[in-house]
Amino acid sequence: MEERRDRDRDRDSRGDRMGDMGGDMGGRGGRGGPGGKGGRGGPGGRRFGRRKVCRFCAEKVHYIDWKEVRILRSFVTEEGKIIPRRTTGNCSAHQRKLTRAIRRARTMALIPVAANHHR
Predict the structure, then answer these.
(1) Which CA distances in Å does 25 have to 8, 12, 31, 33, 112?
(2) What would the pLDDT profile of 15-66 be if each residue is shown by its tens digit?
(3) Residue 34 burial by Cβ neighbours in a 10 Å radius (0-12, 13-18, 19+)
(4) Neighbours of 110 (CB within 10 A)
(5) Which of 82, 97, 83 is nearest to 52 (CA)?
(6) Which of the four, 47, 72, 80, 91, has the lowest number of CB atoms within 10 Å?
């Protein structure tokens, strides 16, 4: 038993583990594994971060007003794109209301539709 453990330890230090023997599995292209694209967990395995809470549910907001530009700007990127729900942590109902409010504010020219493109 002791002999097997020593042999495995030597093999691990040389890099002959089963995970390293696969063809193009390092960092790109492969499913799972160290450094690879691992499904929902992101690169390198599962990510356990703090769960995002909908800002509007926490504040018990029922109506997102399109005239409140200060709030709407925090949900729009510098390029003028609406930040997705998975990034902001909004619930689906409030994300739909937020999108509608941002589009109405764009129509009334309170928020720019897109950033100025300089070349």
Answers:
(1) 21, 17, 8, 7, 44
(2) 555 444 444 545 555 455 455 555 555 566 666 778 889 999 999 999 999 9
(3) middle
(4) 15
(5) 83
(6) 47
Q: Are 115 and 78 in contact (CB under 8 A)?
A: yes
> What residues contact 85, with CB distance under 8 A and at least 6 apart?
91, 92, 95
> Contact at 8 Å (CB) between 90 and 56?
yes
DSSP helix/strand/coil, 82: strand
**Is the overall model pTM greater than 0.70, yes or no?**
no
Closest CA to 28 of 40, 38, 15, 41: 38
| Per-residue pLDDT tens over the stretch 83-115 | 999 999 999 999 999 999 999 999 999 998 876
Distance CA 43, CA 33 (A): 9
